[in-house]
Amino acid sequence: MQLTVNGHTVDVPIHVTTIGLLLDHLQLNKELAIVELNRVILQKDERDEATIQPDDYIEIVQFVGGG
Amino acid sequence: MTRYSRQERFIPIGEQGQAKLATKHVLIVGAGALGAPTADLLARAGIGKISIIDRDFVDLSNLQRQTLYTERDVVKRLPKASAAKQRLLAVNADVQVAAYDQEATVHFLEQLLTTETIDLIFDGTDNFDTRFIINDIAHKHQVPWIYGACVGASSLSLFIEPNQTPCLHCIMGGLPTSGPTCDTVGILASASQITAAMQVAEALKYLTDNKEAMRGTVFSLDVWQNTFSSMDVASLKKDDCPTCGTSPSYPFLQQDATTRFASLCGRDTVQIRPTYTTRDLTTLANKLTDASITHHNEFLLTFKVTGYTLTAFRDGRVFVHGTADVTEAKKIYYQYFA
Ligand SMILES: [Zn+2]
Question: Model-level pTM?
């Protein structure tokens, strides 16, 4: 399935059907990620279950803790 | 030409904005990769007063990015806040600077925000624990603060204003329990400088009453991967948030006692914070008959014992260098500070 993630076209395996699975697939830390799906920001408690479709536009911001 | 002519010619600031800046007082928590350039920019911009706090001293590995400091500060082993003050006053003697060579504990921040009027707080810390304390205290005292963080080549910054924006607690959902809290992947000065510059830009808009120009988004970028993003998080504000909601409990202001012994990230050092808050360094120096003293200035005393180096600060704290293990550090500490 093809998605746009942070402006780049990304091909993900067929089992990646939710935002939670996408974050796992991209090896991102779920505690530090904020996700927009088709320009709508996802509330944290609903985020991981949100389903994704081909050609979805996804924006992911990873919080950074250093300084 | 006056000192601030270039900034005053910038129309949104002008002479009026410049005059406003001169009346503002900011608190910078942490005088490292973010706090140092932030303080430098604000002093040059003509802010009224800077209060700056840091628990550490200037180390050689800081000079790559912490632009206020010099080799002389490393040789003299000056605490960062005091070294920052010297430099800031040399840059702009019209700015008032208060330096605090100590830890930004809940107790300290409470006292400062209760006794002084602070217009804005800058996050120059390197960990989420202190940021959640800043988030709570800022909301309790209704002072806006600016989150800033960087690691590797990436940067993130965000302006948080009580009653206006979601807070850090709303956005992150709570203190992260996992993930890279220690700075083990290094840091490019380009990433820290750009973070500080973004924080200061938002601060200038806020402090000169140009709120309509404020970005209002989580801004993140990576100077190596050439990516950036600006995300509007306004819809994440929660009415039942324990920090900024309708009946806040400020959970991160309850835990001061737990941090008496802390391993400092990436420093191979453990900090011990005793209950007393002053130490006479000369008396200590006279007692240390079996140790070799390597540094002794008005702020701290460093001495070597077998396998370890210890630094005792004027405010009572002790660093045990040479271990990141708290139990091991405690053993050494009690040998010299029973
Ligand atoms: Zn909140």
Answer: 0.93
